[in-house]
Amino acid sequence: MFPEVNEQMDLIKAGAVDVLPEDELAEKIENSKKKNKPMIIKLGCDPSKPDLHIGHAVVLHKLRQFQDLGHKAILIIGDFTAMIGDPTGKSKTRPQLTAEETKINGQTYLEQANLILDETRLEIRYNSEWLSKMNFNDVIKLAANYTVAQLLERDDFSKRYKSGTPISIHELLYPLAQAMDSVAIESDVELGGTDQKFNLIVGRDIQKAYGKQAQCIVTLPILEGTDGIEKMSKSLNNYIALTDTPREMFGKTMSIPDELTVKYFRYGAWANEDEIQTMEKGLKDGSIHPRDAKVKTAMGIVEKYHGKDAALSSFEEFERMFVKKDLPDEIEEFKLNLENPEQNIIDVITLTGLTASKSDARRMITQGAVTIDGEKVTDVYAKADFSTEKIIKVGKRKFMKVSV
């Protein structure tokens, strides 16, 4: 038995940016309920990015909601299209992956995606299954359904064309190849980030061109990284990985700007709408302190991936390590421009300016005046791993957040 149409629509629309066309989706849900037949929900994944973070998880959680409503989730591993390279949001041609690379990355993606999805109700398909069988005649037939002008409407293509940056023909074929995935599995709904909206609409058009019923599309927002500026990305070191430890998840969440707290509560912790509205109202009228809201968000994210006990433990550790150490609310950040995250502590506190010289750094360590994440440093030759952010304290009043 499927829930009522309005109940399903409310859950689907919650947190979504676009639900298009909304009336068509309501009709699909109604038909699904009448026939007692689940809709086919498609999500394409790019195996060129095997390490998932909570930014990637936004759309995965929406797919899980469709599963919980009783619909059929199909995860398309883009092993064939990854050899083209998704040009979405790119200012230049992306490097193409080998078949072996896409296979390895795809497996890693699946292992992490299953932290969110119900794998007992998930079908996995690889788009090489149908795309590798297409001959040149098939490609011409596909390409005849779309014009160059239509493809150049896509923002990244348009910018590159106007700036004279090369666009390879194979990149123009990417949205069409991805659309063939929708044709092959006859998807009723396709999910994606807002940056994928163009590709999802192409999927609708190509389904109609091949005599299929057009899919509806649901887009989700792009989550900013912990810096509050750039899109979450491992390369920018502003991410919270799905495989981070509870302590790392909690600490990284506590470092986000206050203005992102509600968004992380909604899309990172996936709190219910009542909780979100309560937090928004409390922050606005001052009845909830920004730090308390952030703690609730951090605990929610940790609980999502590690459980309640881990969330409570990470909170208690944070309180013990930071709050009771009387850390200031604002701590300057320092990024080490170094490839190796493991560095001598003396070198780091000298580079950051926390001490005037290496001899001064040695003296402070010898006197027991240096701590990292609340732990006293006693060895002048000690090293620390700065791949994740650490708080260094020198003396009584000098603090610095340091990471590579």
What does this structure look like?
It is a single chain. The protein is α/β, with parallel strands linked by helices. It has 3 domains: 5-220, HUPs (Rossmann fold, 3-Layer(aba) Sandwich), CATH 3.40.50.620; 246-325, Tyrosyl-Transfer RNA Synthetase (Orthogonal Bundle), CATH 1.10.240; 333-403, RNA-binding S4 domain (Structural Genomics Hypothetical 15.5 Kd Protein In mrcA-pckA Intergenic Region, Chain A). It has 17 helices and 13 strands. The chain has helices spanning 5-13, 22-35, 54-68, 99-113, 128-131, 136-143, 148-151, 155-163, 169-185, 197-209, 246-254, 261-267, 273-285, 290-306, 308-321, 345-351, 358-366; strands at residues 18-20, 40-45, 72-77, 122-126, 189-193, 216-220, 333-335, 342-344, 370-372, 375-376, 383-385, 390-394, 398-403. It has a 6-stranded mixed β-sheet with strand order 1-6-5-2-3-4, with helices on both faces. Strand 9 (370-372) and strand 10 form a beta hairpin. Helix 9 crosses helix 10 and helix 11 (246-254) crosses helix 15. The longest helix has 17 residues, at 169-185. The chain starts with a helix and ends with a strand.
